[in-house]
Write a structure and sequence with these properties.
With 295 residues, this protein is mainly alpha-helical. It is built from 14 helices and 2 strands; from the N terminus they run ααααββαααααααααα. It has a two-stranded antiparallel ribbon. The two termini are 16 Å apart. The radius of gyration is 18 Å and the shape is globular. Bound molecules: 3-methylbut-3-enyl trihydrogen diphosphate (2 copies) and magnesium ion (3 copies). The site of one 3-methylbut-3-enyl trihydrogen diphosphate (IPE) has 12 residues, from helix 4, helix 8, helix 9 and helix 10.
Length: 295
């Protein structure tokens, strides 16, 4: 686990430095908006999605600057999704990444706008030739991120989550919701490394299968942390999903069966890495991290 933890730290540090440079700053009339964007995006977080982009891309010797910029774009989308997820009209949460949520530290309008601006910044970053001199690669990244984060991806999953009581007894509907709200962006994070690195169709297929299983496991692990985790360790409130009537594997099946699902998905995810051999050691360890995570 040592090499993995070091690598995750390395990615997190580089990501935060790069995001700091990409995020707007200023004390003009929009200063409060910029400050809120920076507050949310630079506050930490595990940076798991950037880790997947960079680690997958390195398997194909992809350009490091391209990987880092794509990872920043993905983390902007993820951060925006968290800001909006925490709003009073959604999950109504007060703590995120160990600090007050954006609408608590600023105000609701600023939180909505900071999310909007992070969402659009993501595409500005990807569309810039600095991300890749190849227009085809830029377009593939823009289209892939749009699909993963829009109505047929993360936002669609969030919409189902908000209407969760309707699917509370339907395991396959819950799995679909989880794959959309969390899995789609995790999948794209991994696939982006393959796009930038010029992976073959077969390699991209394997990455896609790997991240499909990993993404679902990641959200079930998050639901388990809500049910059994420690608020200080996870940096957000726990024990709220049940009160809110959230549909989840944990609510429907219970804690132990949900854990078993995560373990099964984890072993399936690792199985898809076979074609990469030793090169995929870090992606394989990422699966163990998701299995064992306490934050
Ligand atoms: C939290 O994501 C919300 C989910 C989609 C499960 P993370 O657990 O990756 O949050 P950070 O980025 O580390 O704060
Ligand atoms: C959020 O799922 C998924 C997103 C797309 C943001 P949760 O609502 O379970 O995430 P947390 O627990 O608030 O981080
Ligand atoms: Mg939510
Ligand atoms: Mg939430
Ligand atoms: Mg949660």
């Amino acid at each position: 686990m040592g090499a993995f933890a070091d690598h995750l730290d390395e990615v997190a540090d580089r990501l935060t430095v790069a995001l700091d440079a990409l995020l707007p700053r200023g004390d003009g009339a929009e200063g409060r908006l910029f400050s809120a964007m920076r507050y949310a995006a630079l506050a930490g977080g595990k940076r798991m999605r950037p880790f997947l982009t960079i680690t997958a891309g390195r398997m194909f010797d992809a350009d490091e600057r391209a990987l880092l910029r794509a990872a920043c774009a993905i983390e902007c989308i993820h951060t925006y999704s968290l800001i909006h997820d925490d709003l009073p009209c959604m999950d109504d949460d007060d703590m995120r990444r160990g600090q007050p949520t954006v609408h608590r530290a600023y105000d609701e309008a600023t939180a909505v706008l900071a999310g909007d601006a992070l969402l659009t910044l993501a595409f500005e970053i990807l569309a810039d030739p600095k991300t890749s001199p190849e227009p085809d690669i830029r377009v593939a990244l823009v289209a892939g991120l749009a699909r993963a984060s829009g109505g047929q991806g993360m936002v669609g999953g969030q919409a189902i989550d908000m209407a969760g009581r309707q699917i509370a007894d339907d395991l396959s509907a819950i799995a679909r919701m989880q794959r959309l709200k969390t899995g789609a962006l995790i999948s794209f994070s991994t696939e982006a490394g393959g796009i930038i690195g010029g992976a073959t169709d077969e390699e991209r297929q394997a990455l896609s299968r790997y991240s499909h299983d990993l993404g679902l496991a990641y959200q079930i692990a998050d639901d388990l942390l809500d049910a059994t985790g420690d608020a200080d360790a996870v940096g957000k409130a726990v024990g709220k999903d049940a009160d809110r009537g959230k549909a989840s594997f944990v609510a429907l099946l219970g804690v132990e069966p949900a854990r078993e699902r995560v373990a099964m998905l984890a072993s399936q995810a690792k199985g898809h890495l076979g074609i990469f051999g030793e090169k995929a050691a870090l992606l394989s360890q990422a699966v163990d991290f998701v299995l064992d995570r306490e934050s």
